[in-house]
Design a protein that fits this description.
seven-stranded mixed beta sheet, 0% helix, mainly beta
């Protein structure tokens, strides 16, 4: 069974950077495509970035392109989200998610496993 745990969130000022991590304690980590979603008060949970099982393909939300970078190290059972040039609108609870689908997807309905979330707060 997949057990996802996020870490790395915190309080930063606008323009600064954070790197989020997502670890899986289960087996067969490379059998899952992974993604980051976020949700802030009053808004729906939204897609941020996704990465294929081997890490060869990525997808980003328009809001993340050019600022965020998703990566994974399957040997360490860890996925990362490097967030640069953070803005106040990036403030949200960030979730790690895993899907058994082979084709990369940005749809939250296709992600079966979820972490508990890590809070990112960006002050201006």
């Amino acid at each position: 069974q997949v057990q996802l745990v996020e870490s790395g969130g915190g309080l930063v000022q606008a323009g600064e950077s954070l790197r989020l991590s997502c670890t899986n304690s289960g087996r067969f980590f490379n059998a899952y495509q992974l993604a980051w979603f976020r949700q802030s008060p009053g808004k729906e949970r939204e897609f941020v970035a996704a990465i294929s099982r081997g890490g060869g393909s990525t997808e980003y939300a328009d809001s993340a392109k050019g600022r965020f970078a998703i990566s994974r190290d399957n040997a360490k059972n860890t996925m990362y989200l490097q967030m640069n040039s953070l803005k106040s609108e990036d403030t949200a609870l960030y979730y790690c998610a895993a899907s058994t689908l082979i084709v990369l997807t940005t749809s939250r309905e296709r992600y079966k496993y979820w972490g508990q979330g890590t809070q990112v707060t960006v002050s201006s």
